[in-house]
Prior knowledge:
The protein is α+β, with helices and mostly antiparallel strands. The protein folds into 2 domains: 2-155, Chitinase A, domain 3 (Roll), CATH 3.10.50.40; 162-300, Chitinase A, domain 3. The chain has helices at 2-16, 103-107, 137-176, 244-250, 296-303, 307-312; strands spanning 24-25, 31-36, 48-57, 60-64, 71-74, 96-102, 123-134, 182-183, 189-194, 205-215, 220-223, 233-236, 258-263, 284-295. The strands form 2 sheets. Strands 1, 2, 3, 4, 5, 6 and 7 form a 7-stranded antiparallel β-sheet that branches. Strands 8, 9, 10, 11, 12, 13 and 14 form a 7-stranded antiparallel β-sheet that branches. β3 and β4 (60-64) form a beta hairpin. The longest helix is centred in the middle third of the chain and has 40 residues, at 137-176. It is elongated and about 80 Å long. The termini are far apart.
Amino acid sequence: MKRSILFLLITAVAISSCNLSGYKKTKSGLYYKIVTSGGKTPMKPGQFAKIQMIGYVHDSLFFNTNEGLPYYTPVDSVGRPHDVTELFKYFGEGDSVVVIQSVDTLAKMPGFRMPPFFHKGDKIKSCLKVVKVFNTLDEAQKSFETDKVIAAGKEEIKNKAAFEKSQKELDDYIVKNKINATKTADGLYIEVKQAGTGELADSGKIVGVKYRGTLLNGTLFDSNMGPDRKDTLTFPVGTGDMIKGFDQGIKGQRVGAQVRVYVPSKVGYGANGRGDVIKPFDNLIFDINLLSVRNMEIVRNKIQPDPTQATNK
């Protein structure tokens, strides 16, 4: 842990104070400088390297392998031009290096796809540390599998904190707006606008609903309500066809019910988000009108033809 923190500090200083003084330049125009030396011999073709990397554009962080998996790569005899692999022959285990790449040069490389946050004239400033050099693929693979477990643990801790934060935001929203809603064990809030009196929506039933989905700030992201929408959303309850929060909001309601469901991100779209509007860990609000409830077998009988009739035709 202390080594990771030290590496981040060295990186921050190197990047923020970066100029070309003391840098060496390759034929492809790549600038590099060894900040700290591990004192080991340079890597050789046929070996494999485990590398931690941090990258900046306009002094803004855009990737950091310390937050996930380290970069594992074979050491080639040449390396790709204007790429950090071009420099491997100069580095050894334990070395920390600052590298400066030109976006204009990268844009000329075959197959390069320009990310939206790169612009003409930009410089990519990266700091990498050669953590470990392996002599065989088997050694590198074993280390990689171990790091995958560690990275998964980091991601789980990170997500847990983010989910707790979004749940608190939703709890505060309910209190601030004095909403009379029932909270479930998953942190979901259900506000019944109108109780239903018809068939009960339960697991294994097919329901038909009208709905409207927004973020907490009122931004609309989906709806089949309104005079221009004649379609009804139908889905089986409790089968995972819908996000968990939507499913839980409708389960236990009766036909005719009108509910507003406040969905915390952990039972919404979670850490992935959805599309351009729903960001990771966004809480959601759904207005749902339950129009119909049918048995699964009735639906199956309607959509599956009788095999005997099909044979007689």
